[in-house]
């Protein structure tokens, strides 16, 4: 089924373009041993801009044949041809050294290549664009970037064009900027001049795009039926929005007509919205149409085209409707000892996409033999079994394997893992990394189960490698025990890349930060260290944050909102101002975020009173009045921004030519530069010591 565009992944990995961890082991990216000594566990990022800039800033000025003047003439062309992989590695520190024209070329290239950046990249890029007065070029900028722009700098005459462009973005990127997200919706409705609650016309809906996903449920029912097209883009609907959707569908006002007239094509055109159809509504749909659609949904599930959440929601609702209809028509007598009525289940039976409609959970118990289950457990579990049916399968497997499920079968039952107790997991024999990845990669296992599965693997002399960390994802780090986290070798942690640990409890964030500091603590200057440790700063103590503030790292607001609230409350106002640097104005966009609001409560002050309402487009007025009112008539002109060579962060100004060298140089030379940039040389035999070591 077609669905909304998936938000960009929150974690980056070395194997993102590979068919699987086994096919792309990150250990293959280790630098070979040379006469200079080993370089164990250096992280190879897809975006080497920062590291190469740090290197070339030291060494590039002395390189023969690469004069500043020579690169000036061609660097616009270099930005215009930069590939997507490099652009996805965008870092604000080096980009802050770009002139207005080159920053503009970079942003336009991102738009033309449809580069998907993450929230922490977009927020600081939006501030750089504001500093250079580039917001007026918004028709040529990525829609995601517009979501982060200061709405007070959008001219009233441009509000419809701006709204239409921004509405093509992914509003989930604003998860940590609740005030910006609310202001965006308010500004869009003000631009349209609609009433409250809004009754949106077809033309309004066409303009608003994904912004409708934040509308109240009453607006869904009151608006033009074309609202279905907007709702298809929503990553999820609230319970109230789901109820409103069903009310709208029941009314018959949509292109599908009344439920009794629905057909397969119309249901499939609903895309992900079909998974929200209530059981009472399914009872009104013609049986043949419902069966055809159910079969198509199961086929999509077995092919991996539907999320577990969506398919379970749909199956539960549909089967509930069928059970109600059957009860109303025949009122069958149910009993635990009911014999097999539908016929014994075979391998061929399990191929039927309508299998779950023929065999309810009691029939599954009666008709599924041990031999068929043992040989076809993977085929059976490809069906979206309800929890009751999953328990039946688990019980049957326990009878087949009383001493514990064999390892080769464990890899096939990932969808059942959440049903197993710690005592049962301790009976398992887990010796392979592939088994661990199969059991944990599906996000079904719960906290204690994750820890137990990993421990069984470690007890058999297994090791937690970077490939394993990448495969199971950052959220699984949250559920590892402190002892297991400590067992991760720093070299493997470096190779795993930036793992998303934002959902971890604070105690785990603290432990993961110290593991990250152990892994990246020797990566050279603070700018390089910060770039690597940034994903784990949610566990950083106050002293670490104060040290980073002194280094002028210009922390992005996304990272800031994920800091330890207790550590943040120990920072002074000046610490916060210096820590955020040019991004301090973003506090207004996130002032109601729990982390920031708790900090403000501890001070008993507002952002205005603290002088932290700085507008990024007015760097000369660090305590000036912040304006985020929608559709004002002023817009910073190019001349009002800083000089094109003025640095906008605490880093020393770098020559753009050296940054662009990262685009132009072959990958082998980039690796050489990167290899020397991440840390000091180890002994006097290093021939590049003068140029590459700090």
Automatic annotation (TrEMBL):
Task: Please provide, in alphabetical order, the Gene Ontology terms of the cellular component aspect for this entry.
Answer: cell surface; membrane
Query: Which UniProt keyword terms apply here?
Result: Cell adhesion, Glycoprotein, Membrane, Signal
Q: Name the Pfam families on file.
A: Mesothelin
Q: Where does the UniProt annotation locate this protein?
A: Membrane
The superkingdom of the source organism is Eukaryota
| Annotated region described as Disordered, given as residue ranges | 610-650
* Major localisation: membrane
Q: Which GO terms describe its biological process?
A: cell-matrix adhesion
**Where is this chain compositionally biased, Polar residues type?**
617-636
- Which family does the UniProt entry place this protein in? Belongs to the mesothelin family.
**What's the name of the protein?**
Mesothelin like
Natural source organism:
Myotis myotis (Greater mouse-eared bat)
